[in-house]
Amino acid sequence: MKIYETRSAPNPRRVRMFLAEKGIAMDYVQLDLQKGENLTAQMRAKNPLGKVPVLELDDGTCIAETDAICTYFENIQPAPPLMGVDAKDKAIVAMWQRQVELALMLQVGMCFQHTTGYFKDRMVPVPEYGREAGINAGKYLNILERRLELNPYIAGDAFTIADITALCAIDFARVVKIRFTDEQVNLKDWYQRVNARASAQA
Amino acid sequence: MKIYETRSAPNPRRVRMFLAEKGIAMDYVQLDLQKGENLTAQMRAKNPLGKVPVLELDDGTCIAETDAICTYFENIQPAPPLMGVDAKDKAIVAMWQRQVELALMLQVGMCFQHTTGYFKDRMVPVPEYGREAGINAGKYLNILERRLELNPYIAGDAFTIADITALCAIDFARVVKIRFTDEQVNLKDWYQRVNARASAQA
Questions:
Q1: Which of A28, A51, B111, B139 could in theory staple to B134 by disulfide, Cβ–Cβ 3.0 to 4.6 A?
Q2: Residue limits of the GST N-terminal domain (chains A, B) (predicted)?
Q3: Which helix (H) or strand (E) holds B27?
């Protein structure tokens, strides 16, 4: 089993952190995104969208998409649970995970791709949209600040995959100068607790 | 238990179709998106992002996000399975579901929102980005066409949630004049089979 990834990219970090929380060792194959090593015919055969990370199982089955890879490991090794423990809890975690992905991580990613032109050899950057995406990311930090006023972690009482996604999104957001403020005390406290976990170094 | 939704919107249809496949009856509360009935303080308390659908359980717990709502019902009533049956299968379904969501449904939605100005009272449309999103959706139809050459359904041999997402995205895409072509024979055949299911009328 191995994972094709790019060490500096935010989504592969989510998987590494998830595996570190589970205590699962992994072999990694590094791909240079700027050189387009993720876009070769060989990699497109593993993932038609040409993105990282991609998990390759020993039987050759390839699983792309961060959330799908984490779902696989949650199912083969449920402890410690990072995606909820019963039907209601799993749905709550899935909701926050999805909202952090769409309203924060994706917005930060769109801001990065459309304002920096980092991938301009393979997409058409629209800077005006990138700026809007950055504003959207900032607005979602306000929602998280209110959520964390009443809950120690994003999905509730327990640390989950939603916290991993948010930490990785917030760290990546530095690149486009999006950050929570000193007034967002709950977010700041949450960040310090999550960033202090050993898995944050994975 | 009830679901707040808007009958004409594509994401609520995904949930209705999922529940129809499971044979689960549901009470629905209609919200008028153009009037902003989804953005009231009452609805924001149920879902901070102010989107539909939202599932409200009898204990008052609210679950937003289509995929999270479907995850809930898959867990409380596994038959018939729509999200995979073992760890590997679940990961494969999760991958295709996610890619259909991000590379098709989301792109169609962004094309709609940014080129029509439908929600211009609550967001800044960037038409150039909307057109790029539409092009991206079209490119993903090519990926699906190749996938369906070798597989009867998107995630493989079985009908799954990924087929529901794709059907709802493709039907919604008519609004922005994105459609598969007559040359995309596998996609056309798949569409006819999935659209003929009773759940497609839900």
A1: B111
A2: 1-81
A3: strand B27-30
Query: Nearest CA of chain B to the CA of A64: how many Å?
Result: 6
Neighbours of B80 (CB within 10 A): 12
The answer, yes or no, to whether ipTM is higher than 0.95 is yes
Q: Which residue stretches of chain B are H helix?
A: 10-22, 41-46, 66-76, 87-100, 106-116, 127-150, 161-173, 185-195
pLDDT of residue A84: 98
pLDDT score at A176: 97
CATH number of A2-76: 3.40.30.10
B92 touches chain A (CB under 8 A): yes
Domains of chain A by residue range: 2-76, 87-201
Distance from CA of B136 to the nearest CA of A (A): 10
Whether B98 has its CB under 8 Å from any CB of chain A: the answer is yes
Interface-testing mutation among B11, B106, B126, with chain A (most A C-beta atoms within 10 A): B126
For chains A and B, CB pairs below 8 A equal 101
pLDDT (average), residues B77-87: 98
Please report which confidence band the pLDDT of residue A199 belongs to, taking 50, 70 and 90 as the band edges.
Answer: very high
Mean pLDDT of B85-105: 98
Q: Does A165 touch chain B (CB under 8 A)?
A: no
- A99: nearest CB among B49, B123, B129: B49
- One CATH from 1.10.287.3510, 1.20.1260.10, 1.20.1050.10, 1.10.357.10 for B87-201: 1.20.1050.10
B33 CB-near residues (< 8 Å, 6+ apart): B6, B9, B52, B119
Q: How far apart are the first and last CA of chain B?
A: 18
For range B87-100, the mean pLDDT: 98
Contact flag A61-B92 (C-beta cutoff 8 Å): yes
Q: How far is CA A45 from CA A49, A51, A56, B21, B193, in A?
A: 9, 11, 12, 32, 26
B54-56 β-sheet, strand order: B27-30, B2-5, B54-56, B62-64
Q: In angstroms, rounded to a whole number, what is the distance separating the alpha carbons of residues B163 and B146?
A: 15
Beta bridge pairs of residue A30? A5
Instruction: At B9, give phi and psi (nearest 5°).
Output: -85, 150
From B144's Cα to the closest Cα of chain A, the distance in A is: 10
The amino acid present at A185, given as its one-letter code, is: V
pLDDT tens across A96-110, in order?
Answer: 999 999 999 999 999
Nearest to A126 among B92, B123, B126 (CB): B126
